[in-house]
Amino acid sequence: MPLMVLLLSQRTGGVAQLLSVHGLDTHRRNNLVLLDEDTAASCIAGQLVLLSLSTGARRYLPGRDGGGVGAVAVHPSRTLLAVGEKARPGPASAGPAVYIYSYPGLEVVKVLRGGTERAYSALAFDGERGDTLASVGHFPDFLLTLWDWRQEAIVLRAKAFSQDVYGVAFSPYFEGQLTTSGQGHIRFWRMASTFTGLKLQGAIGKFGNVELSDVAAFVELPDGKVLSSTETGELLLWDGGLIKVVLTRPGSRPCHDGPIEALLLDRPAGRVLSAGADGRVRMWDFGAVNDAEPREDSHSLELSPLDEVVVAEGAALSALLADSGGRRWVVADKAGNVYTVALPPAGPVGKGAVVTRVASHPAGAVAGLQLSARTHTALVASADGCLRALDYVSGAVLAEAATPQRITAFTPLPAASPACPGGAMTAATGYRDGVVRLHARCAEGLALVGVAKAHKGAVAALAVSADGGRLVSAGEDGSVFFFDLTAQPQPGTGVPGMPACGLLAPRAFIKLPSGSGTVTCGVWEAAEGGGVLLGTNRGTILSVPLPPPDLNTHHSYEWAAGTSAVSSYQLVVPKPKRPKKKKGKNDGEEGDKEGGEQDEGQGGEDKGGEQADGEGGSKEGGEEGRAAEEEEEEEADDEADGGAGGPSSTTGELISLTLAPNEPGALLVTAGGVGHAARKAWRVRMGEPLAAPLLEGFASAPVTCLAHAGPEGRLALLGSGDGLVRLQALEEPFGSAAPGALPLWEAPLHDMQSGRVSGLGLSHDGAYLVTAAADGALHLLALALPPELAPPPTTQPGDEPLPGPAALPLRPPDVLAAAAYTLEEEKQQAERDQQVREAEEKKLSVRQRLGLIRAEFEALLAENEAAPEALRLPRADLEVDPGLRALMEAEALRREEVARLELAWESERQRLGLAKLRRYFLDGLESERVVLHSLRGSSTVTTFRVAKLSDETRAELAAMRQAARAAAAASAAAGGEGGAGGRDTDARGKGSDTGGGPGGDAAARARLAEATAALEEGTASGKLNKADLRRLARKRREAEWAAFNGTRPDDTYDSPADLAAIEEARRTIGDFKLKSDPNYVVPEEERLTPQRKRLAMLELEEALHDIAAAFNAKFFALRDVKRKVLADVRVKLAALAELAAAAGAATGGADPDATAAAYLAPFSGLPSGLLPEEEPAEAREAVTDADLAAFAARKAEDERKAAAAAAGGLGGFAGAAAGPKKPAAGGAAPAGGALAGGAAGSGSVAHGAGGPSAGGQQGLTAAEEALAKMMAAVPQSELEKGLAAYNRRRVEHMRSKLSEEITAMLDAFDDAHSALKAEKLGLEADVKAGQMRLLVGLQELQLLREFDKRESVLLAKRQAKLDDKQEIVDKIAECTDKLETKRLELEGLVARRAAVVAELDAVVPESDPFREALVRVFHRRIKRSKKKAGGGGGEDDYDSEEDEEDEDMGDDEVDDDDDGGEEVCPPGCDQSVYERVCDLREKRLDEEDMIAEFTKTIEVLRKEKEALAKKQRLVEQGLAAVNADMAEFQKEKQGRLNQVEVIVALRMHQIEYLLDGCLPDDLSACLVFSASQLRRLQARVDELEEEKAGLRAAHKELRRQHAALLRDKADKEARVAELEARAHDVQMLKFGQVIDLELLDRVSSSRGTEELREDLKKQELAYARELAEWDAKINARMDELVVLTRENTACLNAVSELTAAQRRLESGLTATRKGLFADPVQQRRAEVEERDALVALVNAQAAELDRLKGQLLALRRKDTSMYA
After folding, report:
1. Where would I find the WD repeats?
2. Is the pLDDT of residue 1441 over 60?
């Protein structure tokens, strides 16, 4: 077999090569698979071991990710192998991968990445094709991932569980299903198609009343049920996520004595195989397991195994596999043994099976390792309690010693120790139960040479002195026990009865002071007679003195004075100085040089702290950012710890303590934890306050193992807590490494999670390195060390000494019981036993003396009786103690009182217990389960067991109903107000925007009335000319058109009738949308909330309660009827018995009893009353004589059994007389006795009271009997015969009548009983359905509560948007109202201005020669002074600004501009007329000013309305977005609710989903729909057809009307065209052109309007451009001003700084030159000049600032000075 060389380091070359890995990790579940018929595979540490079942040879497949191998799975074709690995933590790690290897070539085919974060724990291929691979991750994510491994793609993933998962398997029978199991759970998965796609849905198995258990193995049965294992040895059969039945062996014994670790289904053979911790493989019948049903009174079923195979007695089996043919099994146990079981071709399997142990390997975590100094042999202590002698080159197990307890401590003994027989390899081991054992390797294996139980708890540490003469053991209970190691067995305690401890001689123990912590390691001091040094989990070193040799341990081993003599030393390490790194491109290299490098085996993590900066990031940038972060962290750490280089104490555990061979009094210490102390190995001198660093440790885990080898200890061997092993060359013996020296060799050999290195060592010849760790693996590596580091040749060549039996001491008795006494307890118990024996001996001597005295007294009594009567003494005189009898009587009375009190106490206790049980089981019930039997037949009906609705439930229901009513009322009120407001708003909006609607119609009608009135007034007065009359007529026509158009609805107008019809159609359309539709949006009124769902659940619970209560009321009424019926039947049966007696008397010789039995025979089975189960509440409190008799019988039986047991087993002969007695004949009849018998008895009694009967002849006298015989001999007459016949017919008639009445009563009751039972069946189905609805509702309520917070946020957002919208709508309505008011007022002002014009026409008629001049004066624009608001008198109260509102004046009202000349009355014109025109002009101008103001106000309101409308659109957009978010949220919520499974009970006739006339296998595509709704939909189809036909007819009629209206419209348009043509012809004939009448009116009334308007527009544009230019200039000047201000400020600051600097310089200069060559006058003058210059500069800048401010003010003013 070629060696598999592991490339461990590229820097050091081939220093170490892996040769083999010993051990099997059989403690890991599902860690053994079959690759072919001869090869099994198992994971251990970082290797996949391939084991040959025929030869036992091993091959290795190394892991690739460096963290170990986690799981393995075999493809169904057995040509592929999947290996899931573990990744080492760190920034450079990409996570673990699953590698697909070809087999047997072992070449990588595929690589699957991204399935988990740290490690894989289980793998499995699916089905027969193996297209899908399932993987389960380890802590912390526990991800279940399904892979399409051929495409290297993830299909699905979900979290498997929150704890360890042991196994995963696909269903071999149902595609898309798989099962996982692990710690405390089993989970059933299926790939389900949801509305969001394919998902993994897992149902956790519910254990219910069964004890929770880890599920190590499971197997799926063909019908989908799953059989799983338990820790207690039972088998669980699962069906649909629930336990169907628990399988046990007969006698309620578990299927295995211990946990079941493996299950296998052998379908061809029809059996299920199970392997457990009892070393047996049991076979179970597949049919019995598959069809198992629980018993009625239990959830379990007892099954007997078909057969069993004993693999190994006492072996804990952990794996069970079968080859492809099923004729051979492969079994592994937790001790590392692998077996093959060959099955016989026929016959019983248990007898014919051949079990062969194929291989034996170390298994379990390694607690310690000892290499031989002579041979390639090692002692390996496994944590599972097995100590093995191993040939680590060949891997053969030479010997082993197993114990049931775990090994917790290990230390080898030096060969010079007296306890090493013949110098053999000897080791001391400590166990979890506190036992310390010594094992020596001998010719027969591993011999036990010493044993002692020193502690109550586990042994935490062991240490042997350098000379091998003393051993110390530290326990977790805080005790430290000292032993002397001897060459011969010692008696030990000297106390009789105590066993010897072999070569362990107990010396003494001490208790550590409280608060010392738990001991983790120890070493003896080098000084002669020195004590022991113990490391603790609190980072302290305890110095424990050696007990004195003359210590008295006769009564106790405890040395009390030693506790106070214990001293403590706290490990304090110096905090490292962290120099700040230079930000350069070689930072990483410098860090590497400072901190040391690690090779590729460590994942590229250098001590310098290099990290990947992410994809696409530059190395320099990442290093710079990291350097800054590290500097901040270092500064914070330095501040917390008192500065860099200061002391830093460790609170982590101390892992190892070793004496420094090159320095007496110094210790080599390694510490745990995550701090700085855990990253190094330290040299500690107990007299110094700080520890000195010795060796660099590991960055990822503390140093857990430290050893030295080579010449003078110049080679250090280090192991870490995560499986790293390092060889480090030392600069000096047992010293530190050279500065900057790299490790000689380093590699991650062991598992990163469980591979804590526990042992390292070089072979005696230096050729091999052996490592051991907690992952159970032992690595053997070949070394090629440099000559200077190679160990010297061995000084003890030869074979290992193996002493024979004669050279070994006697084997001491082993301590195997976990509850055995410790040495101290055994000593104390031995002394107590000795004291008890001495007390018993004293008691025996006293009893013997009493016996002699009693015999002497009896002899005196006999002598007294033999004496003559005269000499005989009375018996009272011979009474030894006269007061003894009185004392005994007083004692009897006292005991009687005590018994009475005890009985009273017991009675009260029973009463309180009964009250507690009644309160717990009955007080919460409104009605318990009561059975009611029918009177005929065996039919029964029961009540509903109804619990009372709690007060909390009722209060919550009432509160929620009240809240629902209040919410409904508030919603109705808000809806009414909102609807009214909405309608008003719409009306206002339409009236204002389109002119339609009531508002616009009213305004148009008002204008029409005004125009009509003006026209009529003008016509009647005759003051208006023809042009004005025509103008008014046209205005009237315009008003008429406006009024007509106002009645026309706009495009947005909706008819109320149409809206009502649409609403009715929406309400009755019958559109049933599936809630499973991805696009389904739940309507507002149907959306579920937690409050609604909780209210529905409470109402359903109340309804179920009311249904059950109503039925129970009917039930109890029927029970009362039964009681009455039985009473009536009892009376009628008594009458029937009397008739039977009369019939017997009538027939003469008939037997009365036979006649009565014949009469009552049809009713013999009737009960005499209600049965106890029909009145449980009444029967519960009643105690009958039969109950007392039965209790007495049981008590007597118990006493008899107790007496029989006390008598020594008299068997059945002693108990025959004490058996239970039968009730007497006159005892109480059973409750279910026949009512007819009682009726017969009562009938006979009644008859006896009324007259003679056949039975009454026994009481006749002799004369009466003679008379009766004589009468009987006389033949009857015809009358008597007739009378007798009449009596017989009468009796038969009454009998038949009574029988019919009784039968009718019974039938009526039975019919009512049957009806009630049928009703109960229906109600029970409804109640169960309601309860299932409650369960579904509970799941929905949980989901709704999860969604409630998000929904509340969305609702709050939507309500805020609605409030904003309502506020804006209200503001728009307010603006609309204001606009309408202003418009009406403006129309009034326009009318007033028209009245002024009309008044002008009246003052200056058309015939006036000065009209044109006066009209020009009237329309002239002049500058007017407007009075300021709130102004008083004076010139300052007037504003001389030009009227800015001229542009708003009509063009027909302006004739000429003010030319600036003086205005005078036209020559020849009347001055009064001229002044009147001027007054009218002032009126016009006043009206125009008011019109301008109103126009400006209307424009402002219009702009405000437009801004509000824009804001309303934005709010509506936001509201639409919130509604969209709400709809998406509701979809998501409905989707989650759709995933809740709802159970619907259907009958077969309700299923109409058939394929080819058959019910399909898969009903997942079915839709459950209400039959009533389906019928309503069908009826709705007919209704819609009828509505469609009606709508077609209406549409046809409307089209006909539309055509008629179009024809009318065409006629009207033709008429209008004809009139327009006539008007055109008339105008052309009369004027030669078409006259614009409106233009003519405007021209006639105001000339030059258009020219003025054009000029005005030009001026406005010019002014606007000029204002824009000035605004730009102002902004530029403002920017310049800001820049200058900043520059000025900077200059001032500079001047201030220069001035201060100058003053400082001058002060210094003055101080230095000390007055030499200094002219104070010149200096003062220079200072004044410089200060003046600065002041001038500041003044100039201030003037510039003032100038700029003036410009700004000038630019901001609106007067005309800026244009000058």
Report:
1. 115-157, 160-199, 208-248, 255-294, 361-400, 454-493, 495-534, 649-692, 707-752, 753-791
2. no
